[in-house]
Amino acid sequence: MNTTRFCLVLHNHQPVGNFEGVIEQAYQDSYLPFLDVFEQYSGINLSLHTSGPLLEWLDANHPDYLDRLAALVAVGRLEIIGGAFYEPILTMLPSRDRIGQIQTYRAWLEHRLEARVRGMWLPERVWEQSLTRDLVDAGVEYAVLDDLHFRNAGMTNEQLDGAFLTDDDGRIMRLFPGSERLRYLIPFASPGETIGYLRQLHETHPNAVAVFGDDGEKFGTWPDTKAHVYEHGWLRQFFDALLENQSWLRTCTLAEAADECPPRGRVYIPDGSYREMTEWVLPVERHAEYLEVVHAHEHDANWESLRRFLRGGYWRNFRVRYSEANEMYCRMLLVSQRLDRLAKAGQQGDLWEQALRALYRGQCNCPYWHGAFGGIYLPHLRNAIYQNLIEADVLLDELEGKPRQRISADAGDFDLDASQEVRLSTDKFDCFIAPARGGQIYELDVRSIRHNLLATMTRRPEEYHRKVLNHQNHQGGDVASIHDRVVFKQEGLDQRLQYDAYERNSLIDHFFAEGANLESVSLGEARELGDFVHGRYDAKIRRDDRRIQVQMRREGQVDGRRVTLTKAITAEEGGGALQLTYLLEGLPADRALHFGVELNLAGLPAGADDRFFHAGIERLGQLGEPQDLHHQQSLGLTDEWLGIDVRLELDQPSSIWAYPVATVSQSEGGFELVHQSVALVPHWHVRGDANGRWAVTMSLQMDTSQAESRRLASATASV
Strands 142-146 and 171-178: what pairing? Predict the structure, then answer.
């Protein structure tokens, strides 16, 4: 008998660090109502993957939901699909972490849901063939990829009616092709269109297996889908249509399909991910060209034959597009390597296990890339990654018995750019410095609050900014896929498209042309006279018993004149401040040069009264309000919610520009302005002394006593 098997595979996910209210809303709008409807249709089976961060949240906040899942597992209606616990892109992890994440999550699922876990969900369907060995070693029998993966291997849609075998180093597993056509039909088209597509497959491919594998948030959380799927009855109509056609169409789990249907053959999949992801990772100019080619030919009679040879980009290149993604990745790798060294030395135990789980959380994929979702542009997701990575380091320090007051410095290629960086560490903070990249600080971890004070974003062009400039809006009454919607969450976004000529780190050394002011600097339009912003500095580390200094020196050009700049970053044992000393040599005697030092401080949101500038006890306004200050020797930034007060103090009066840095980025809800950081630029019109020299010393102080007092009070209250 010819029976078409239809595998509904849902993937529910919320990233590490997402807002409680957002997750609760997704539960109420999507996860809960879907389960309420599904339970009523006993003739329908499906496979469900829920990412570890979400499942932990559900277990803590709605344990009854998990109990209901377990009951469906017990009667065979629901297959639980496993995966890597905290939803990392597997290709960015060392093998030990891939296997560890998968096995840890399987154990959690088997204990909590009493489920036999055989398959896995591949985050963002990012695939490299070498994954096969680790997946099989971790106990994975099968996984779902997109049909695009298989077409990239030279196969046609007509061949993709079941699972295929693949292997690596003698390990064998099954790969199911998920249908892109079904992803765009469900739930946006009428149920009849999906049935029609499956009927055509049934008539041309006996005993076919069709797989829909996509986000469960499409059923209620994505814009406009709650009313469409539930209030207007789409889901019930869809389930009714499936049951009405069960004489030839049977819903089944991936496990049932794997057991009942022999593999269609063998395949080796080229590196890739789903189609949209391969587009998003392209450089902006290439992405635009790609889309132009698609739009120019998508209506050609031979388009289906042509498109199989059209390739997008490679996921790992998000680390090229976004230096911030590479820095997070490299920071994660340092923690992973440290855990591995301690394990090999036999230094494991409860603290090591806690640090390992923090590392796994710090590998959650969402902030490492960007596409139709906020991704790397969302500060709270980036902050969550760093929070967990810093937490892991703090736990491992305790495991190793490091003293309460300490100071150290080491050099290494910490960001994998074939140049040496310097890590200056105390018990208060970790400071990462890149002499080869402008002598800039690119990470500053405040350990007491587990916060990277430099986790900001550079303002870059994105392909979708063309839509912002064109003021396009989605029209019509149909429900649009999230990939097709164009919605503006604020007015005037086209006026906020500004781009940076450099990465927004700290200790960026500027020599401004005449006429530079707060507006031109904040818009990225001020002209540079010097070559220090991107210049390579020579560096050396100077030590004594309680003090370490990283000294950097560069001889460069300023408007055709040779100028030498020496800057030093100094930390003292037990101190919570960085001392920043600048010396300029070779300054002209006949003119002043406009010199400024830029610092970007992140994780201090704008638009709230408890986040403000101050000079001593005087409040100067919220952190989102630009400041053009003169004759200042101190400027503070307070975030009472985070519990930190950052103060910049100078040993001589300075003018200071301060302004918010915001990006226009794309998220599920539309285009929006996202606050990324606050830029501080103390600046001077400097003239050299009789020897052509000028110097200034600044102190960057980080006071977290408010946060520490709150934590102590909370701990005392819980005793």
Answer: parallel
